[in-house]
Structures are given as structure tokens and as C-alpha cells.
Amino acid sequence: MNAPAPHSPRETFALHGHDAAMAAFQDSRRSGRLHHAWLLHGPMGIGKATLAFHFARILLNGVDPQSPAGRRITAGTHADLMVIGRGMDERKGRLRSEIVADEVRPIQSFLRRTAAEGGWRVVIIDGAEFMNRHAANALLKLLEEPPPQAALFLVSAAPGALLPTLRSRCRALTCLPLSNDDMRQVLHEQGYATQDVDRLIEAAHGSPGRAAFLGHDRDGRVAGIVGKWLDGGASGASPGDAESIVRQDEGFALLCDLLGDGLSQRARRLAETNSLADAARVAAAHGALAALRRETERFNLDKGQAVLQAATIVSDL
Q1: Within a domain: residue 67?
Q2: In 3D, which of 106, 102, 85, 79 has the Cα closest to residue 153?
Q3: Between 267 and which of 20, 62, 205, 282 could a Cys-Cys bridge form, CB atoms 3.0 to 4.6 Å apart?
Q4: Is residue 144 part of a domain?
Q5: pTM, rounded to two decimals
């Protein structure tokens, strides 16, 4: 299976799920007392940033993607929309670990100026939990005295990491994982073949973003290896298995993700049956696997050896 390239939130016009969050926003807008700051929170990859862009399109008269405002939002050239997120570390080839104060401070001048198109000014902070303390404090000062006709949307998969004072100044909207019906529609719209959709829905837990990540697993090859390992076959892992995993796009990350998900589910089942010692042992293996993934990716260690080490962690259960 060749995974289709997913659209970015800026380029996604169809909205699936999140009906309650949309209704709350629309009710607030129609009341004429739209809150100035919103916290959109929920699991990763379920469409929170897409929802934030949809709100921005409503406020900036760009719901129609072919309208002048709609085209500017899609192109990233709308003068009344500012989007902030973690930048790319070109040297390491991955997203930076933080959003820093220098990236947040320009919001102040952006919000204080007159709207270029005579309406709202909108700011989206995607991954708000990655703001460091200086960035969060800079944003907090803006929220204490918000200008009129300005709306900020903070998107976060870990709202507990935000400053409590920051959370208290936002209206929270809980975003839930998508239903299977919504997931099926999203995946078909993104171009996934029918034979792949059911497998991805089962493993994605209501997250189109996770489904897109799992879509890198050609024909479910890594998932098959993970299933065999979790059924007691990890001790037979071979260098050939490791090579076949590492050769795939995102192969090592896929292995760790699927193994971690399987271990998490097993630990929950054991805890539910009061097998607490066994649940703790599986939870410890889950932690060891997560640490192996972090260290391998952080220090660019040999992924083939890391795959075999992951097998050892599982085989000890």
C-alpha cells in the first residue's frame, strides 16, 4: 500500500466530527460575544488544527475555498491570519522541541494593528503545549488585555502542560476521536483503497493523523511482525526482520508505535482482571520501549539494532 499524502489542516475543507465544538463556537459567534481565546484540546491527529482553520475561515469569510479570502487562507497569504507552530530544525531534519518567545511576541503587533480586510484578526498556535515558559508568559500578557475583534485558537494534545493561568483565560473546547463512520469517510476522501480502510480504522483509534502515519506500513507488514511478537514470537526475531522493518518509510517508528499500543492494551486488560503484578511488568516494558525509541531517534543510533532490542524487551514478558 502506498499511503496517500494527507492534506495539511490549511488545505482541508471538509470537516468530519467535532459537531459539539462547532456548535459551541457558532453559538458564541451568533451571540455577538465571541470569546477572544479558545483552547482546542484532544488526542493527537484527530483534526484539532483543521477545526481551528475552519473557525478562522468562518471569521475571515473564507469558508468557500474558491473565494478570494479562502484562496489566501489556503496559500498562507491572508493578512489577517497568523499561524504559529514548531519550526523545522534544518540541521536535525525534524521539528524543533519548543515554541520560543521570539515566535510569540509578533502576535502583539499583529493584533494591535487594524485588520487589513476590515474584520477579524485570527491567530492559530498549533501545538501550544510546546511553548516554553517565556513564550507562554508573552502570550499571557496579550490575553490579559485582548483587543476587539481578535480571536486566538490554541491547539493542544496536552493541555495540562500549559500554564494554569493561560488555560483559565481560554474557553476550552474538547475534541473527541472520530467515529468509525467519520473515519471511513475521511480515509476515502484522502484516497485510501477500500481494502486498507478497515485495517487502519481498527488501529487508528479515531485519529486520521494516526491513520496517515500507519498508512506507511505497506500491506501491514510491520503490523504482522508486531502481532507475531506480541503472541510470543519476539524471541525468534532475526536480523532479516530488523532489515525489513528499517527499509520501510518510518519503519522503526511504526514498530515502536504499534508495539507500544499493543503493550498498553495488554496492561489495561491485565489491570481490569486484577492481575496487577503482570500489568506493572507490561507497563514497565512499555516504558522501556518508549525510552529506546527516544534515545534511538535523539542520538541517531542504529535502528536495526534498536529493532532487535525492542524484540528483547517484548520477549522478556
Answers
A1: yes
A2: 85
A3: 282
A4: yes
A5: 0.89
pLDDT digits (tens, 9 = 90+) for 19-77: 999 999 999 999 999 999 999 999 999 999 999 999 999 999 999 999 999 999 999 99
155 plus 256 within the same structural domain:
no
Residues 229 and 302 in one domain: yes
> d(Cα 306, Cα 296) in Å, to the nearest integer?
7
Q: Quick one: 225 and 288 in the same domain?
A: yes
Between CA 28 and CA 293 the distance in angstroms is: 43
Locate the DSSP E strands across 17-158.
37-41, 81-84, 88-89, 94-95, 121-126, 150-156
The whole-angstrom separation of Cα 215 and Cα 246 is 16
pLDDT attached to residue 218: 77
The domain boundary, picked from 174, 197, 225, lies at 174
Placement of cell 524543533 in the chain: 96
Kindly give the parts of the chain with pLDDT less than 70. 1-3, 5-6
Give the Å distances, CA to CA, from 267 to 154, 214, 226: 33, 22, 16
What DSSP string describes 72-111?
Answer: HHHHT--TTEEEE-PPEETTTTEE-S-B-HHHHTHHHHHH
Q: Which residues contact 92 (CB under 8 A, 6 or more apart)?
A: none
192 belongs to a structural domain: no
* 167 and 232 part of one domain: no
Task: Please give the residue range of the domain that contains residue 276.
Answer: 216-315
The C-alpha cell that represents 80 in the structure block = 489577517
Structure confidence at residue 91 (pLDDT): 77
Nearest Cα to Cα of residue 44 among 159, 209, 198, 267:
209
Structural domain count, the chain: 2
CB distance 278 to 253 below 8 Å: no
248 shares its domain with 128? no
| CA–CA distance, 119 with 60 (Å, rounded to integer) | 7
